Amino acid sequence: MSGRNVDFGDRLATAAAARQALLDKARAKANDPELAKRQAERAAIAAAREAREAERRAAKKAEEERIAAEREAARAAALAAEEAARAEAEAKRQAAKPQLTEAEKKAARDARYAARKARKKR
Predict the structure, then answer these.
(1) pLDDT exceeds 90 at position 2
(2) How far apart are CA 25 and CA 3, in angstroms?
(3) For all residues of the chain together, what is the average pLDDT?
(4) How far is CA 12 from CA 22, 56, 91, in A?
(5) Of all helices (H) and strands (E), which one includes residue 15?
(6) pLDDT tens-digit profile of 69-101?
(7) Band of residue 45 on the pLDDT scale cut at 50, 70, 90
(8) Is residue 12 part of a domain?
């Protein structure tokens, strides 16, 4: 080592002194009021950020719920309109269809029966 005779004990003592110096430096830094102030500021910033994120999540959830409710309302309105149109079409169809008396219905049924029997005989 650079021309000096350094024995093992000297190296151990130097390493211990270096470790102690690092430990003293770390302790001094830990007790520094400026460091505590910076850590408190960082904690406040992190808390504010978390609050903003929670607010955004809540707003997004509320918007999604509103959209889902609007979509459900639109679907219900479409179903109601479709049902009303179907009912109206059925009413028109019933009104356009001639109303047969019981005797006319029986005569038509008998004619179909007779035609079926005639087809089977062939």
Answers:
(1) no
(2) 31
(3) 90
(4) 15, 58, 105
(5) helix 8-30
(6) 999 999 999 999 999 999 999 988 887 777 778
(7) very high
(8) no
Q: Evaluate if residue 30 carries a pLDDT over 80.
A: no
**Torsion over CA: 56, 61, 66, 67 (sign):** positive
Q: Supply the pLDDT for residue 70.
A: 97
Tokens at residue 14, please? 């130097």
Find the Cα–Cα–Cα–Cα dihedral 29, 31, 33, 34, rounded to 10°. 10
The residue length of the chain stands at 122
Structure tokens at 17: 């002194």
Q: How many domains does the chain have?
A: 1
Residue 104's domain comprises: 32-121
Assigned domain for 88 exists: yes
The answer as to whether 3 is a domain residue is: no
Q: SS3 of 5, please?
A: coil
For residue 19, being part of any structural domain is answered with no
